[in-house]
Amino acid sequence: MKNKRGVVMGVANDASIAWAITEALHKEGAEIAFTYPNDAIHKRITALAETLQPESLILKCDVSQQDDIPNAFRQIKEQWGSIDFVLHAIAFSDRHQLTGRYINTTRENFLNSMNVSCFSLTEICKEASAIMPNGGAILALTYLGANRVIPHYNVMGVAKAALESSVRYLAADLGPQNIRVNAISSGTIRTAASSGIGDFHYIMNWNKNNSPLRRNVSVEEVGKSGLYMLSDLSSAVTGDVHYVDCGYNIIGMKAVDAPDIVIEK
Question: Residue 153 catalytic?
């Protein structure tokens, strides 16, 4: 990643997947700009960024606000001219609706979850691709709940399914510009985001006991996979959902390993 510049969007704290990928990118020589949605996150990002590189480029970008994404990438263009990669690690849902049944999701939370967790990737790709004259890589974070029923993942599973579909369409759109769009589907890791999922400890324990490797994936392992997907090591990979999960994806969750629905006539 020497002489590569890119943007990391969605770091929550030093235990997040986005931060593990950031550390892996920085270790290999990448120069990184950061975005933050609000003042509280700004303080955290500033402190973290200073541990890697002094005077990091740190920009306000609340993806739920109409003008923030274009403004952030305009500032990046003014500062750097061009970029080589983007990490999209942005998702949101009302945590109170990540317990119980999906059927109880409110319209407001559904639309907000889809806007922040899914549509933001499309808008970011549009803006980022305009300053990737030499091609590049864009990576999003997803989860197995996009294609299997995971207890309490609820509307986030629907949003991640839409995100994964967006990855494929965006990969097709941007491929002629030599811009690759992919996603990483991480196994169960305790992060600020996952802690909002009801009974998450049960999901972690089940996956640990039933995955082929008999353990959960580490955040450092996901970081290395992120480095692979954003570097030229994966130069022929696009439109892909890359699983980093110690193999539990091949087994699935007991009782909710959602099969195709078949209606017999």
Answer: yes
Instruction: Please tell me what DSSP assigns to residue 240.
Output: -
- The predicted model scores a pTM of 0.88
CA triplet 121, 15, 243: central angle to 5 degrees? 55
- Please write the tens of the pLDDT for every residue from 58-90: 999 999 999 999 999 999 999 999 999 999 999
- Residue 248 designated active-site: no
Q: Which of 143, 228, 243, 248 is catalytic?
A: 143
The alpha-helical segments, DSSP class H, found in the chain are 17-27, 39-52, 68-80, 107-114, 120-129, 154-174, 200-210, 219-230
Catalytic choice (36, 102, 153, 248): 153
Please report, for the chain, how many H helices and E strands are present, in that order. Answer: 8, 7
Contact (CB, 8 A) for 222 and 21: yes
* Pair 179, 129: CB distance under 8 Å: yes
Looking at residue 87, what is its pLDDT? 98
- Write the DSSP string, 13-27: STTSHHHHHHHHHHH
What percentage of residues in the chain have a pLDDT greater than 90? 69
Q: What order of strands is seen across the sheet that includes strand 85-88?
A: 58-60, 31-36, 5-9, 85-88, 136-142, 179-186, 241-244
For tokens 């970011």, the residue is 124
